[in-house]
Write a structure and sequence with these properties.
Elements (H helix, E strand, L loop, with lengths): L3 H5 L5 E6 L4 E6 L6 H11 L4 H4 L9 H8 L3 E9 L5 E13 L2 E11 L38 H13 L6 E4 L6 H11 L7 E5 L5 H9 E2 L10 E2 L1 H4 L4 E5 L6 H13 L1 E2 L8 E2 L3 E6 L3 H6 L5 H7 L2 E4 L10 H16 L5 E2 L1 H9 L5 H13 L6 E2 L6 H20 E2 L2 E2 L2 H19 L4 H8 L3 H10 L9
Parallel strand pairs: 6-13, 6-14, 7-10, 10-13, 15-16
Antiparallel strand pairs: 1-2, 1-5, 3-4, 4-5, 8-9, 11-12, 17-18
Length: 470
């Protein structure tokens, strides 16, 4: 992050926290223009509302919050004029930072400084764009199949299949857990097709409130609703190219019916309009659950599913292709050696073993986050256990405790009673304490935090011989 931001934003007077869907979790303004007592109830009233409902003039495509969540990057905006749902103008400087845990984006926190001038309340002009160094906000796909790193045979088969269908107009459904690379595949398909010079438009369906979804997707005409302007929707913006609808199962069922019509006829109608517009768009959809489960839970219409899934691509989670872990480790170390100007050689044997033990719920995205986090603390040589994020060791220990309990409870696949589990666990702890103490009863009792007399009783009860091993 550019340190210049700290010089420009020498203080903040407002904090907004939203979840990954844009729902407001916390909001407060300390500026004297907003009296604390008179606005306390107001702040409470907007909790759990989508921030786009509270600030209806914000364009979702240019929203610092949506882009920070989508691209997992801090975003600084020198000046932003917004109008809240009460019609009040607020001109701010913003620093928006994604909230990430285990590689998964949980939401964003926006720190802002009110810079509203009196004359701006009567007249203002909004023509501002967030500062993002990459080309990610433009409708352009930046990834190709060469960017997909894998040695797993099923994933390589997915790449071969994706290349075969890349130039076909058929709809594609990509499904896999969060962090498995769904948008990476979608962009690669686009760039491998004859549409590669045309727009690639991506939208996360879970990031938009239902009342704005239709106008975002199909566009609007002036006067269609309060604040509506003549604006093309995502289909028109993607005309000639590809439209990726991520988390399609989060789209309201009422809109799914309208989407089905567009897929059948190739026609879109803006909200408030009385005429149809012809569009030529390749549709790629993605979801992070099994399609059969989404249908069963009523998250997606069955008829829409069949229309969207002419081609299916299932991406494996990292725990089911652990042969890719060393490949990704090397790839990400090379990446962050360049970004951080370091020369880290690799990971220690212990770290490699730990990586293979871990289940990686955040998949490749989480592994990348772990490598980046660790490399910030390595001065030279290799990444060791001490450099890893604390949560990783804790989660692995937790998984091992669960596995250990499973082993105790299900010895030889025979279920034990609670009393039998307690006795087995007690016996093993006593034997280990005696091993560590060299058979010294007093030291073993201290380790177990029980009296010598009680330990003698347990040794006799379980018929444990001094020097016996587990």
């Amino acid at each position: 992050m550019d340190d210049n931001y700290l010089h420009i934003m020498d203080y903040v007077d407002a904090i907004l926290i939203v979840d990954s869907h844009g729902k407001i979790l916390y909001s407060v303004r300390f500026n004297p223009r907003f009296d604390k007592d008179s606005h306390e109830g107001e702040y409470e009233s907007i909790i759990n509302k989508n921030f786009l409902e509270v600030y209806p003039n914000i364009n979702p495509d240019e929203s610092t919050i949506i882009n920070s969540i989508k691209y997992k990057k801090p975003i600084y905006l020198n000046e932003q004029a917004i109008v809240d749902y009460k019609g009040r103008l607020i001109n701010t400087q913003n620093l928006t930072i994604p909230i990430i845990r285990s590689g998964k984006v949980l939401g964003a926190i926006e720190l802002s400084k009110d810079i509203t001038k009196i004359e701006e309340k009567a007249k203002y002009k909004i023509n501002l764009k967030p500062i993002i160094n990459n080309r990610e906000t433009s409708h352009k796909a930046i990834y190709t199949f060469d960017d997909i790193v894998t040695v797993n045979q099923e994933m390589l088969h997915n790449i071969r299949r994706a290349k075969i269908i890349a130039d076909n107009p058929s709809s594609v459904l990509i499904y896999g857990e969060t962090g498995t690379g769904k948008e990476l595949f979608a962009q690669s398909i686009h760039n491998y097709s004859s549409r590669r010079g045309k727009p690639f438009v991506a939208q996360n369906c879970a990031a938009l409130p239902e009342n704005l979804f239709e106008s975002m997707l199909f566009g609007s005409v002036k006067g269609a609703f309060t604040g509506a302007v003549d604006k093309p929707g995502l289909f028109e913006e993607a005309n000639g190219g590809t439209l990726l609808l991520d988390e399609i199962n989060s789209m309201p069922l009422s809109l799914q019916a309208k989407l089905l019509r567009v897929l059948q006829d190739g026609l879109v109608r803006r909200v408030g309009d009385n005429r149809d517009r012809k569009v030529d768009v390749r549709i790629i959809t993605a979801m992070n659950i099994e399609p059969s489960k989404a249908i069963e839970q009523g998250q997606i219409r069955e008829d829409l599913f069949y229309r969207l899934s002419v081609v299916n691509i299932k991406l494996l989670p990292l725990r089911k292709r652990k042969e890719d872990i060393p490949v990704y480790v090397e790839y990400f170390i090379d990446e962050f050696n360049q970004k951080l100007n370091k020369n880290i050689k690799g990971v220690s044997k212990e770290v490699e073993e730990l990586f293979f033990k871990y289940n990686w719920p955040g998949n490749v995205r989480e592994l990348r986050h772990v490598i980046e986090s660790s490399m910030n603390f390595v001065e030279s040589g290799e990444i060791k256990l001490i450099h890893l994020p604390v949560y990783l060791s804790e989660k692995i220990n937790q998984e091992e405790r669960v596995e250990s309990l499973d082993e105790i409870v299900n010895v030889s696949n025979v279920e034990l009673s609670l009393d039998e589990v307690v006795e087995k666990t007690e016996r093993e702890m006593i034997v280990r304490a005696l091993e560590k103490s060299g058979g010294n009863i007093s030291r073993a009792a201290d380790m177990l935090k029980i009296t010598r007399q009680r330990l003698h009783y347990k040794i006799s009860k379980y018929n444990i011989k001094t020097g016996q091993t587990v």
